[in-house]
Design brief:
The complex is a heterodimer of chains A (249) and B (287).
Chain A (H helix, E strand, L loop, with lengths): L1 E11 L5 E12 L4 E6 L5 H9 L6 E6 L2 E2 L5 H4 L3 E4 L13 H9 L13 H12 L18 H13 L5 E5 L7 H18 L2 E5 L3 H6 L3 E6 L2 E7 H5 L3 H8 L1
Parallel strand pairs in A: 3-8, 3-9, 6-7, 7-8
Antiparallel strand pairs in A: 1-2, 1-4, 4-5, 9-10
Helix pairs in contact in A: 3-5, 5-6
Chain B lengths: L1 H12 L1 H13 L6 H17 L5 H24 L5 H20 L3 E3 L16 H24 L1 H11 L1 H6 L4 H27 L1 E3 L6 H16 L8 H23 L7 H15 L8
Antiparallel strand pairs in B: 1-2
Helix pairs in contact in B: 1-6, 1-11, 2-9, 2-10, 2-11, 3-4, 3-5, 3-9, 4-5, 4-9, 6-7, 6-11, 7-9, 10-11, 10-12
Classes of the chains: A alpha/beta (249), B mainly alpha (287).
Chain lengths: 249, 287
């Protein structure tokens, strides 16, 4: 699904020294695989996600999405295939627009935005149904402005927005970092359900070891731009949060 | 009373200006000063077209793409050459001063007796008919803008002004949207300049100076009023900007009727905008 071949990305510090953010990475993410990525600050986790999203371009190497090389595409050119959820819940949606209007934009992610009045009865029904799967009662708030909702509610709706059109890849960069524990738990449960149901290839960066252990079927640990641990399936099931803490230190 | 009805007529002619500035300043969050130039550009082009001669309706409509070009120039300088939006507008506005003079070939063109979509503006017998024409134009332009802002493309425009990351993540090139938005905005401003010129019967090279602030005054008054309604729809803000644009002209007329000289009008306008800026905590220039 997503394949990194010899990807290298560095930045030059003030002393003129080149530091590798991603050091010669070769890795593949399979369809419908839900991968958790952990690691200390500066280990290259977010850079990895940003390279896929197109916010950062690699110095060397190729990134293929379904055999098509995408490393040269601009962010908005690849977002047709890639849905993102940001760390900041305010970043994923537009406060001044209503929930329904935000959903409309998300629905059109892989289409052009024309001069049609797209928010009609049928569209409203689809969206309300999708939102109701969150079990947060937000389907009754679709005509409110996004800005009137809480961070947790907005992040949950961003999740629906991310999956409203047929994206195959979902990137989540610390999606729960700004949420209270209850909202965080609810978001992760909903995310896990949606990822499973829609068979999304998912990469999630987290600093929360419990999330890393409890969700996903693959786990990567990164250090200084390299993948230092890569476990999946049964092996991942055996991990505990304490193990991860030990390894991280 | 006739004094105020003429002011009302002028207020209607300034509605497209207010809507244009609403688009750039509120929808896109771009402080676009191109306006000062594109307002005169609209008037100058109309004068040249009408003296060809050309049918007044055609001459009025042709002003739209010319204004759009000015907006596109600002948009392209801002997005492609990465020049700050405010500065891009100032550059184009400055350049337009020369362009306008080249188009007009002198600094003032009287249009008395030339074709006009209005009829004998100063003749009270035609006031009702002229009012009807002006209202018709305002209803069409306002309806078009409301419709546009409600379409899928309009949603993208509104999103672009407040969260660029988000629309990029939704597969939209924000640069493209900005260029289109500034084009529409300046097309409206040029239309306004052309309507005002037809009402006053002449074009003057300096007629656009400070016009952006007049438009901004209407936009801010409109926002202050529409905020009271707490509606999530875009219809109310647009309607209130239209209402405020007319109200603003009546207010200016009222000031003039009090015996205050014309020279103070811009001072009043600036003071009014300052009041709205500080009172409504409005972020005209974000970041």
């Amino acid at each position: 699904m997503i394949k990194f071949t010899n990807v290298y990305k560095s930045f030059t510090d003030d002393a003129g020294q080149a530091n590798a953010l991603i050091a010669d990475l070769n890795i593949a993410f399979n369809p419908a695989e839900f991968t958790m990525i952990i690691g200390a600050n500066g280990s290259g986790k977010s850079t990895l996600l940003n390279i896929i999203a197109g916010l950062v371009y690699p110095d060397k190497g190729t990134i293929a999405l379904n055999q098509n090389e995408i490393q040269q595409l601009k962010t908005y050119e690849r977002s047709k295939y890639i849905a993102r959820i940001f760390q900041n819940p305010l970043q994923g949606s537009v406060a001044e627009l209503t929930v329904m209007e935000n959903m409309r934009l998300a629905f059109l992610r892989n289409q052009s935005k024309g001069l049609a009045l797209g928010i009609n009865k049928a569209f409203r029904e689809i969206v309300k149904h999708e939102i109701s799967t969150l079990n947060l009662g937000l389907e009754n708030k679709t005509e409110q402005k996004m800005g009137t909702l809480s961070g947790g509610q907005r992040q949950a709706l961003t999740l629906v927005m991310a999956t409203l059109c047929d994206a195959k890849v979902l990137l989540m960069d610390e999606p729960t970092a700004a949420l209270d524990p209850k909202s965080a738990h609810s978001l992760m449960e909903n995310a896990a359900n949606i990822i499973k149901e829609k068979q999304l290839t998912t990469l999630m960066v987290t600093h929360n070891m419990r999330e890393a252990v409890n969700y996903g079927n693959r786990l990567l640990m990164m250090k200084e731009g390299r993948v230092v641990m890569d476990v999946n399936g049964e092996e991942k099931m055996k991990l505990s949060a304490n193990h991860l803490f030990d390894w991280l230190n | 009373m006739e004094f105020y009805t003429v002011a009302l007529l002028l207020g209607l002619a300034f509605v497209p200006l207010a809507l244009g500035i609403f688009l750039s300043a509120k929808v896109f969050n771009i402080p676009d000063i191109t306006t000062d130039g594109s307002f005169t550009l609209g008037a100058a082009c109309f004068a040249v077209f009408i003296l060809k001669p050309m049918h007044p309706i055609l001459a009025t409509l042709l002003v739209l793409p010319v204004g759009a070009l000015a907006g596109a120039a600002t948009g392209l300088i801002h997005t492609k050459l990465k020049v700050n939006a405010l500065l891009s507008g100032i550059l184009v506005m400055t350049a337009l001063y020369s362009v306008n003079l080249l188009i007009m070939e002198r600094s003032n063109i009287p249009l008395i007796g030339a074709g006009n979509i209005f009829e004998q503006v100063n003749n009270a017998d035609f006031l009702l008919k002229n009012m009807f024409i002006a209202v018709l134009i305002v209803v069409m332009v306002t309806g078009l803008i409301i419709w546009l802002l409600k379409t899928d493309f309009g949603l993208t425009m509104r999103a672009a002004g407040s969260n660029e990351n988000m629309i990029e993540a939704q597969g939209v090139n924000p640069d493209k949207i900005k260029v289109i938005g500034l084009s529409i905005s300046n097309a409206l401003v040029a239309l306004s300049g052309c309507l005002v010129t037809q009402l006053q019967g002449f074009v003057d090279i300096n007629m656009g100076i400070g016009i952006v602030i007049a438009g901004l005054a209407s936009v801010m008054m409109g926002e202050a009023i529409s905020n009271r309604f707490k509606k999530s729809s875009i219809v109310m803000p647009v309607l209130m900007v239209v209402f405020a644009a007319i109200l603003f002209r009546l207010f200016i007329a009222f000031i003039l009727a009090q015996g205050i000289e014309q020279v103070y009008v811009k001072l009043f306008t600036a003071a009014l905008v300052l009041v709205f800026l500080s009172v409504s905590k409005l972020n005209f220039i974000k970041k």
